[in-house]
Amino acid sequence: xxxxxxxxxxxxxxxxxxxxxxxxxxxxxxxxxxxxxxxxxxxxxxxxxxxxxxxxxxxxxxxxxxxxxxxxxxxxxxxxxxxxxxxxxxxxxxxxxxxxxxxxxxxxxxxxxxxxxxxxxxxxxxxxx
Length: 129
Ligand code: HEC
Description:
Layout: H1 3-20, H2 22-30, H3 38-49, H4 54-58, H5 84-93, H6 109-123
Helix pairs in contact: 3-6, 5-6
Bound molecules: heme C (HEC).
């Protein structure tokens, strides 16, 4: 195979992977903070104080409790640097062997993304708790 044919073939494989993996494509979009809109933050706030039960451990205003750390600006332990993608990851996968389970309260992945958008926005002074 010539180098040119090989490079075209590689691109074809990459494209096929992107097409057949909506989850990967969705996460790439989800982790883009410019995609965060107020409606998403509002939904995340509702999930935090409702279905997700996050407030029970992390506090009504993200201030933390004896059970779980604050989710306001702090030295992040699991969600590295408080990055949006890292926050989504922790909420989706949980932190093994801790009270932080994956998708707390049985929230959906979309709800996890919204609640992450809410936490990220509060951290970056773009929303109130
Ligand atoms: C039953 C208690 C509990 C509930 C409910 C809970 N968490 Fe947690 N969460 C924890 C604990 C404990 C940790 C710290 C884990 C560790 O020891 O590293 C944590 C860690 C986190 C972190 C990482 C913090 C860091 O410093 O990196 C995020 C983000 C987070 N939780 C978000 C949420 C969200 C969003 C919800 C609701 C959908 C939620 N949690 C529900 C207990 C809880």
